[in-house]
Amino acid sequence: MNVMKLFSLENKVAVVTGGAGKYGACIAEGLAEAGAKVVIASRNLDNCREKAQEFKSAGLDAVAGRVDIADENSLIQLRETIKKEHGGTDILINNAVARPGGDDMSDTEMWAKAMRINAVGLYTCTRVFAEEMEDRNAGNIVNISSMYGMVAQYPPMYEGTGLAPSKTGIYAFHKAGMINFTRFLAATYAPANIRVNCISPGGFHGKEGTHSEKFLENYNRRVPLGRMAYEDDIKGAVVYLASEASAYVTGHNLVVDGGYTIW
Q1: Distances (CA, A) of 86 to 14, 90, 157
Q2: Domain that holds residue 212
Q3: Predicted local confidence at residue 202, as pLDDT
Q4: How confident is residue 102, by pLDDT bands cut at 50, 70 and 90?
Q5: What stretch of H or E contains 132?
Q6: Three-state DSSP class for 230?
Q7: What is the model's pLDDT at position 159?
Q8: Exposed, middle or buried by CB within 10 Å (0-12, 13-18, 19+), for 38?
């Protein structure tokens, strides 16, 4: 097959949870640019509709869907709606994440709240959509983890920024678990022809960025390639793992961090 066709997602239906946010919108746009019909899903349906309309205006195929991954019935409803209206889900991007504020290690309620989304929600969302994929003996799941699922924070990066590193480790805990859960899922679903992979990005700048000049200076000095990731860096990785270009890849954690974790 022509290599460009290997990367094509034409006639595929992709669901992106947390799809209206900064990270999710970038991922959804990349999938749509590769030819997929993308369902932008989150709890805020208005935001999803706004983002879907933006993509449609650019000639991309996108629709909005409401979902709460902490609610199994909500997940089932989204799956069944997609099946009825679009034929089913070919690609699931597990991108939704809860990042509760606070740095009190004794705040067990904060941990429980994050677990409900980042652990139980991840499991439930994957199971619900994988059930349909198993029925069709085909599917592709990509989990969005982080380099902080592989390495610890680097406190000197916060010097002079007015910011402080996390004291709870909630994000690192969940993202590390996601990486190995990906391997478990890959082994479990391989007989049903469902591939499961993971992406671990480093710092994300996006189009405009949300970081102070001092933080960027500290961060960029720490990264071999000297910068944070831009949208195209993330798009390429997601499309690769979601397409037939990676047909012989499963259980893999693709690190997209500019070399941050090699030191």
Answers
A1: 10, 10, 46
A2: 3-262
A3: 97
A4: low
A5: helix 122-136
A6: coil
A7: 94
A8: buried
How far is it, in rounded angstroms, from Cα 66 to Cα 69? 10
- SS3 label, residue 146: coil
Q: How many domains does the chain have?
A: 1
Structure tokens at 66: 């409401």
108, pLDDT greater than 80: yes
Q: What stretches of the chain adopt beta strand conformation (E)?
A: 13-17, 37-42, 62-66, 91-94, 139-144, 194-201, 253-256
Lookup: tokens for 162: 């007015």
Query: What is d(CA 122, CA 94) in angstroms, rounded to the nearest whole number?
Result: 7
What pLDDT, in 10s, does the model give residues 10-28?
999 999 999 999 899 999 9
CATH number for position 20: 3.40.50.720
Output b/e per residue, 231-242; b: 16+ Cβ within 10 A: bebbbebbbbbb
Between CA 165 and CA 158 the distance in angstroms is 7
CA angle 14, 19, 20 (to 5 degrees): 140
The pLDDT value given to residue 238 = 98
Across 219-239, average pLDDT: 96
Q: Name, in order, each residue with C-beta under 8 angstroms of 234's C-beta and a sequence gap of 6 or more.
A: 23, 26, 27, 30, 199, 201, 204, 256
Cα gap 62→245, rounded to integer Å: 22
Structure tokens at 233: 């860096």
Each residue of 66-85: pLDDT tens digit?
999 999 999 999 999 999 99
